[in-house]
Design the sequence.
């Protein structure tokens, strides 16, 4: 029997590689984790249901929320979402980039015509370097980052970015099924967040 796929790309339906866990067939520990996510977040995504095949994998990537709650106090909610979107778009992760498009749109932003200040541009530039192969960050960029953030903040932000990359890799490698509730927020592509137009920064 064929498995459901994510939305067609150029007319080709891409099949998911590992079907999300079915609640009724899941072992008790997986069902307990499933229930906890629904209680806390209101829904459980296909990515989390796929992760529940391995509880250690599920717990590792769920630490994304712990790190988000660590960086959000000094970044702010908007820049935390911009940072996550930039990484996910750079990695061409349809699920995650659309998830953060949704967050930005619901807070009043247009992800395709962002107005960014200098601090936001810096953090997004850092995000995009983290998403590139090997996560190399030029000295000049790191120097500008270190001038604005403490060592503790940079460590937390870098780890948060690395876990965002891991989430993107998981979705892309396993062709995790695209969540239907995200469809209205999907852009034309998962291209990186647009740079500000002249005079908008």
Sequence:
């Amino acid at each position: 029997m064929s498995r459901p796929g994510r939305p067609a790309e150029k007319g080709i339906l891409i099949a998911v590689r590992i079907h999300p866990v079915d609640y009724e067939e899941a072992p008790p520990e997986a069902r307990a984790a499933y229930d906890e996510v629904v209680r806390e977040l209101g829904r459980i995504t296909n990515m989390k249901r796929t992760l529940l095949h391995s509880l250690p994998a599920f717990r590792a990537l769920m630490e994304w929320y712990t790190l988000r709650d660590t960086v959000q106090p000094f970044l702010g909610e908007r820049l935390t979402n911009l940072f996550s979107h930039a990484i996910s778009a750079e990695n061409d992760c349809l699920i995650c980039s659309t998830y953060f498009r949704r967050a930005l749109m619901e807070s009043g932003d247009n992800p395709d015509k962002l107005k960014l200040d200098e601090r936001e541009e810096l953090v997004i530039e850092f995000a995009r370097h983290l998403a590139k192969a090997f996560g190399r960050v030029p000295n000049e960029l790191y120097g500008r980052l270190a001038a604005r953030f403490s060592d503790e903040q940079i460590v937390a932000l870098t780890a948060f970015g690395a876990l965002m990359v891991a989430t993107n890799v998981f979705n892309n490698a396993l062709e995790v099924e695209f969540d239907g509730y995200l469809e209205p927020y999907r852009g034309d592509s998962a291209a990186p967040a647009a740079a500000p137009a002249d005079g908008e920064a």
Notes: The chain has a mean pLDDT of 89. The chain has eight helices and two strands.
